[in-house]
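Table S7 (text form). Paired inputs.
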Amino acid sequence: MFCPVFMSNKYPLLNTIDYPSDLRKLDKSQLKQVCDELRLFIIDQLSCNPGHLASSLGAVELTVALHYVFDTPNDRIVWDVGHQAYGHKILTGRRGVFNTNRKFKGISGFPNPKESKYDSFISGHASNSVSAALGISVADEMQHNHHNVIAVIGDGAMTGGLAFEGLNNVCVHPNNLLIILNDNNMAIDKPVGGMSEYLMDITTSKYYNRLRFKTHHLLKKLGLMNDNKKNRFVRFANSIKNMVSGSSNIFEGLNIRYFGQLDGHDINQLVKVLNDIKNFEGPRVLHIKTIKGKGFAPAEQSATIWHAPGLFNPETGELIKSKDAENISLYQDVFGQTLLELARKNDKIVGITPAMPTGCSMNIMMTEMPDRVFDVGIAEGHAVTFSAGLAKEGMMPFCNIYSSFMQRAFDNLIHDVAIQKLNIVLCLDRAGLVGADGPTHHGAFDISYLRCIPNLIISAPLNEYELRNLLYTAQLPEKGPFVIRYPRGKGVGAEWKNQEMKEIPIGTGKMMKDGSKIAILSLGHIGNVAKDAILSFKNDADKFAWYDMRFVKPLDTKLLDEIAQKFKQIVTIEDGSLKGGFGSAVLEYYSDNSADVKVKRIGLPDKFIEHGSPDDLYKMLGMDKKGIYNALKALLR
């Protein structure tokens, strides 16, 4: 693996900055060099320790300017989304431990108040910054505090519904919120929708701004700026703006003062403007234009690939691919290729994704059938209800949403899909523990929060071929809402390409191995770990039976009855929350039917799991091969 030499003389200024107070001691003329060194430091570090590269490179000048102008941590910065905040972490006491970023027991890849007082709010999911920062700002007003509160929203997060809800409320309550729109015309994939096009077109006249500043200061000096008069002034100023520049915008329509567009890579201009507007009263928006991946040519040219590129050579831009298990397919690629094959045969199939066509591999179908794939932006609730509308009129939507992001569309699934029993296939990628992104991204809760909803079919494939068959089964007529959950990353090497797809009867499991003493019931990919644990017993392996249940709703009750008649000890294994999960469903069934069995459940505990590699996390939880082996061995005793 290529890894650059970390020499202290590469970062002479950056190495003097342990906290923002050190940064503020520098002369303004030195800030450009700080930005250059910070950008180089991020590139060097992430080449060896993968993370979110392009977003943080694009926010370097903004990060330096914010900490130079504002009195952090007394002033609050809320980052949205948090993967643009690596520079923020480096400048706020974590430069020396940044090499542990996203590693097990290292620092988090996202802002987290438990990690640092400079992290004002947790931000792993997009579009929450305006609402959270507004709450902080209003709390300050109510308690007569005088902190500046800044929400930094970018990377497509303005397309999320929560961002619009926050904006709609900003102008209602007294606050001095500063919203910085870091507009890089990108999310992970290229952003879509009217809002992204609209942001590209906003213009503001410099003559209008000059007139507005002078008028505002004059009225303030004359004492004519109480709350009622101030609101009238904002509306009057918006009218002036319309006349001078010939345009208006959504922010001013909501009585939020708008400044922009600014070059987000001009550090001197950013510092000047932030100093000019930081003490203004009332909510305002500063719109800056940045380039995702700024300063690293490969990332500028292909921001989607370099959003989180993995290992790379920082000198050549060469991506370094792992040679381990290179012939094993990713689950998301099995999904993407199978969906395309199904769509070729079924013209009712359409694909829907909330801003993740590349991540979930729906871009495979999008390339061949662009008119039948819809990227709706970072809007999971809309994705589900949009799918419902398509299904209501006879289409067959495959809506692919990461498991943790599906939490944001819970009401839509109940109200718009399940009640009407619409034929929608909901594909939950990244189920289970996803690794370095940590608790905001782990797919821990989907079984629990979906199992209580009537009319849903909930399934999980053991391997790549089973995923292919479940996708085929789900698009057959009159199945109703059909959930398929599968993990991030590689499968187990099961043959699936060009294999005939077969229907799986709904609510059926199957015995994978017979045994004499203990029955193991697994759901999904983690069943492969259970199989390896059983085989580790060698002489005692024949004492364990293993069943791949495939469905958590409906359960295969016929198979459960057969198991209860033969075994008194049963173990359930799942890569989801134990509270309300697959094991709970089995317990409920046996309790309701007075079965004389003892059930031990293995799954995720009732707590938020930290970040780290999936191998490290499953080992910590006793859910790797050795941990499951030890649990089974204890039962044998």
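Next pair, protein 2 of 2.
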Amino acid sequence: MMRAVPAAAIPSRARRWVLLFGLVLLLTLVPGGGVIAARGPAAAGGNAGVPPGKPQAGGDAGSLQLANVRVLGVPTLVVATPTLGDKGKGPTALERAKVIEGNLELLYQAPNRCTPGERLGELVAARDGEGKRVLPCDFDHLGLGGRPDDLQVVVLKGNGIPPQLAAVVPGRERPLPLLSVTEEDARLHGTTPERLAERWRSLLEQRLRYARLQFEDDRMVRRLRLATISAVVLGALLALCRWLWNRTRKRIPELQRRHEQQPGRFDDRVLHGLQGRSRVLTALMAVLAAALVAVLLMAWPGQFTRAVDLLTEPAVVAIKVLVMLLLVALLRGIVWLLLSQWALNVDVPVEARPRRAQRYRSLLVALQRLANLLGAAVGAAWIVAGIPLLSELSANALLAGGAVLGALALVFQGMLRDFIAGLVALVDDRYAIGDLVEIGGLLGEVLDVGVLSTEVRTVDQKVVVVPNSGCDRIVNHTKLRSGAEVTLLLDRERADLARAMAAIEQERQAFATDPAWQPLLLEPPVLRGIKAARPEGLEVSVLLITEVGRQGEAQRELLRRLLLRLQAEGIPLGGRE
């Protein structure tokens, strides 16, 4: 017999969920900042120089669209374009920022536009040339090289055109245009285009000289040497952690076998300590591997911010996972609280309370799994959205991703069908954990109701996993009540039918009033009389209606009593010779 949910268990569990809710509330009320704030849109797209309260890079500030301009990966300027306007006319803020960054890179990191084969072919073709030639594959074929201090940024002004910033490099007759200061830029920064141009001129000149300085040969060699030493040290530490992890992994099975043969007093503590050390070493190896990759990235100028992001990203991911675990725990607690109140409803009829307690168990398991699945999906989306490269994808890339998801939905449409069928089975109360059901001719007890499949244990103790979409025709033997039919086959020629029916009726009444079996019976057994007349005999039927799941034992006991009574009365049973 199923038992209702104990009311005394609610306060102790409720205290734990209240504690979890308090932790989540405390985490929510912590002022923005620190690591979490640093991984928001500002860190992903950058927005240095924007006053507090302004949107982040790539976002909108009222009628303006904003984007960052970076030098060596460090946000330097914030440019703006109108949000409202004719579609297709003029670049967006992000497109404008990319163009400006390309102009700035020409001054400290000229793009390699030639393959090694093209470079070699250029040298072979120009070997007989007269005088000094500037080859297109040369790093300084645009004449933008030189010492860092030789670079100057100037403001070009003209009548009726916005101020322009340009780079003056010795050896070039004309300056290299970098960007134009628009009215939107000036409106964003609260000044005039001319004053903003002067402010940006000094800032760009300082950043560009610093960037050119980082690509000098002596600094590159020094940075490469330092990165090599650091990589060797980190690699040695990583190898040491791997060696300790292997020893720990081999030590655990040995200690387990020794504990099975001769249990020791402190073996459990040692095993848990080794398991904890294995987990710590695993986490340490992951941190060292990330640090090794970050050090190698730092060897090349302009990769410092990516290296720092690589070092901090695991911590940020861990914080996001922790937050999602707390939210999932809170959601599971809310599900448990609501279902507990639903199961303890005093308005439910007495005969329906065991069934409600049974449904409570099934719904609790299924809904808590759905909470876990929802938390995993939201957490994965939150983590993926924080990746800088993915957060800056264009609309076309997002549409392509949607098309891929649609194709995956078609591929896994069977799983979706199982998922929906499982939800329908739970909501529609077709079966629950503990029910004796027939699914497609398979008879067994429901062990688990999952979101995709149902586990059934048959009479021979085999566990069969049935997809939820395959549970289209279900026979539930234990919903609210159970029943069984006891049949007897009497000899149609030799049996005295009247005396046989009287004996069966007397035994039926004795069984219905037996104190040992009466509590199991929802109704007294019903003598249905002759069910069928067959060549081998007359089939007499007695119907039993019992509590949930008790029909089998009652059926066997009543059949035993009836057979003994008929044998004592000398009434022969039917059957083929």
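Residues 1-15, 17-60 have pLDDT under 50 and may be disordered.
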